[in-house]
Design goal:
Layout lengths: L3 E7 L3 H12 L4 E6 L5 H10 L6 E3 L11 H17 L5 E6 L3 E2 L3 H10 L3 E2 L3 E2 L13 H4 L10 H14 L12 E2 L5 E3 H13 L1 H8 L8 H9 L5 E2 L4 E2 L16 H5 L5 E2 L7 H11 L12 H9 L12 H4 L8 E6 L3 H15 L3 E2 L20 H6 L1 H12 L3 E5 L5 H8 L4 E8 L4 H10 L9 H24 L5 E5 L4 H11 L4 H8 L8
Parallel strand pairs: 1-2, 1-4, 2-3, 6-10, 11-12, 13-15, 13-16, 14-15, 16-17
Antiparallel strand pairs: 4-9, 5-12, 7-8
Length: 525
């Protein structure tokens, strides 16, 4: 008959730990607790007093100060396993838990499940061949020695790693080990844990190696189990139901998730929200219950993905919606004004906005100080605006509650214009060509950093023809792109042509178009 010794690593909330221990030992199982040595002495004393009369609970006296990604987490686990093995000789399985975990099946169900499956449940995938690590450091976790914590001493962490690379101080992985990786939430049989402890007594070199790897709690037990246990006796999955958002953050479960959690093919769930009081009470009572039927649908992850990728309005979030650069919408019309003289483009935008009542935004992809509404943060950075241009533009359409939007874009940003033209929305372009004199070119050179206060007149005289050619080349490239609905407002053109081009770009009355085209200050510097 299966008897589980729960290995609980925790660091806060002593009252919740006491309750968790009482709930999980009520059906005859055991628990060994490691309470982080960084936590207060008073909290540890509270736990000790609260569980003193429970013979199925043992506290690890050899406590460790734990840090995320450090060997200390593995050492705390080893210490707690030692405590559990000595205190509970009848335990047949050892199950890793955190204070955020709760049972989603009865003890009866869990025992029957383990009795039917003479298996170690631990995620263990090839470190190099699998894609378990999605981003960040991979091989460097192993071949360099990590003495600093990346979260608390970031500069020292990376400086140490870079120095080792520079000096060629990489090291070999123990030759007989095939490094594995996976979740730290496992359930191991007693003989497997005994085998690991015996192996470590003989192989101090393995401990020395893992002590200076980065995030060893994802590789240490995973590697040793695969090294010591035949593959048919390993089920490479965790029995703890956990999910992550597309930001890599753990999904929290709340009071209304009770039925969903019970329907998953797992024994525990993580993370239960601290505020989900009702859920905690119901799950706490569940574990000691008997003859509870469970209808397993196991749809939790797919259901969560389905709902969260659509949001309230249908498909608002879609996987990282700003990264997918999806369409602005067929029904929307984007009107682009491009001109090297930004003040002229802004003047035209302001007057078109006044005459048509349509919303407009100035050089949002070219000018850091462009005034924008609060759109969640990425409007504050020019880099983010450009990177997520379609998402930003979609949000502006929604913010102004309009299907038409006027924007200004610098002629040098041809790729932006091309990107908007490739969208399914309707795009129109008004190219404003102005005469440029040496004074404008000199000012442009200073604004863009091509010239400074100490630049000599001789240097400027050599520089200005190149700048003039660049401006002309940008205008030619836009014309050569042969965009549909491309209209040109040329300073030197007759008034009748200007009026025609303005009316083609944006439906204006003849009087409005004439007033704008013939305004004396339209092209004034």
């Amino acid at each position: 008959m299966a008897k589980i010794a729960y290995i609980l690593l925790c660091h806060k909330d002593p009252d919740a730990i006491i309750l968790q221990a009482q709930q999980l030992t009520a059906a005859g199982d055991f628990m060994a607790i490691h309470f982080d040595a960084r936590a207060s002495v008073e909290d540890f004393a509270t736990i000790s007093a609260g569980l003193a009369d429970n013979p199925n609970v043992a506290l690890t006296r050899k406590r460790v100060k734990c840090g995320w990604g450090e060997w200390s987490l593995v050492q705390a686990t080893l210490n707690t396993l030692t405590t559990a093995m000595q205190a509970f000789p009848r335990a047949t399985h050892f199950y890793m838990l955190s204070g955020d975990c709760m049972a989603i099946k009865t003890a009866q169900h869990a025992h029957d499940f383990l009795n039917r499956n003479d298996t170690d449940f631990i995620e263990s995938f090839d470190f190099f061949a699998s894609d378990w690590i999605k981003t960040g450091m991979k091989e460097d976790r192993l071949i360099y020695r990590h003495f600093f914590n990346e979260r608390t001493h970031k500069s020292l962490f990376y400086a140490s790693c870079d120095l080792q690379k520079k000096l060629g101080l990489s090291r070999k992985i123990p030759e007989d080990l095939q490094i594995q990786i996976g979740s730290q939430w496992w359930c191991l049989r007693r003989r497997t844990v005994e085998g690991i402890m015996e192996f470590l007594r003989q192989r101090r070199d393995v401990i020395r190696f893992f002590k200076t790897t980065w995030i060893p709690d994802e590789t240490f037990f995973q590697t040793l189990v695969r090294h010591l246990v035949p593959s048919p006796e390993i089920d490479p999955r965790t029995l703890t139901f956990l999910m992550f958002t597309d930001y890599g953050m753990p999904v929290n479960f709340y009071n209304d998730h009770y039925d969903l959690l019970l329907a998953q093919d797992f024994l525990f769930a993580r993370k239960i929200s601290p505020g989900a009081v009702d859920l905690k009470l119901r799950l706490g009572k569940l574990y000691a219950s008997e003859n509870v039927p469970f209808k397993i649908s196991d749809e939790g992850r797919s259901l969560h993905e389905f709902l969260t990728t659509r949001g309230r309005t249908g498909r608002r979030f879609a996987p990282r919606f700003w990264e997918t650069e999806s369409t602005l919408g067929r029904e929307r019309q984007l009107l682009i004004i491009t001109c090297k003289k930004w003040h002229v483009a802004k003047r035209v935008l302001a007057r078109l906005r006044d005459k048509s009542g349509l919303p407009g935004v100035e050089f949002l992809f070219n000018e850091e100080s462009t005034q924008l509404p609060d759109l969640g943060g990425f409007e504050t950075s020019l880099h983010k605006r450009t990177r997520h241009r379609r998402a930003l533009t979609r949000m502006l359409f929604e913010y102004f509650d309009s299907n038409t939007l006027i924007v200004c874009i610098d002629p040098g940003s041809l790729e932006l214009i091309q990107d908007f033209y490739s969208d399914r929305s309707q795009t129109r372009l008004l190219q404003i060509n102005c005469t440029v004199n040496d004074d404008f070119l000199t000012g442009h050179a200073h604004r863009t950093g091509l010239a400074g206060a100490q630049t000599t007149q001789t240097t400027l005289e050599r520089l200005l023809p190149t700048i003039r050619n660049d401006i002309q080349d940008e205008a030619d490239r836009i014309r050569d792109a042969e965009f549909d609905h491309h209209y040109i407002l040329d300073e030197a053109a007759p008034d009748a042509v200007k009026i025609q081009q303005l009316q083609a770009f944006l439906p204006l009355s003849p009087a409005q178009a004439k007033a704008l085209a013939t305004a004396e200050d339209l092209f004034v510097d």
